[in-house]
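New to this. Help decode both lines:
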Amino acid sequence: QVQLVESGGGLAQPGGSLRLSCLASGFTFTAYAMGWFRQAPGKEREFVAGINWIGSQFYSDSVKGRFTISRANAKNTMYLQMNSLKPEDTALYYCAKGRQLTWNNDPDSWGQGTQVTVSS
């Protein structure tokens, strides 16, 4: 079955950086787009970034220019490099599997999430 395991969350200071990883198993990683979502306390889950099977990237306006999504197909792993972090980036970050090669913002599987807290 599909398994998505996030890691790399933690506490960062404003302006700092973190890198999240998502290790995927149970499906052919290269055949699907992947993405990251986040959910802050009291708010709905929101799209952060998506990446096609071949590497084309998509970002929400709130993270564009600060976050970079990437994937290492040989390692079945997706990453989210987060720079210039802000307190409003504090959330539980989820890895998500797309339904096809290209990202369409409609994932069919989710990881358990990794907490990111940005605070001084």
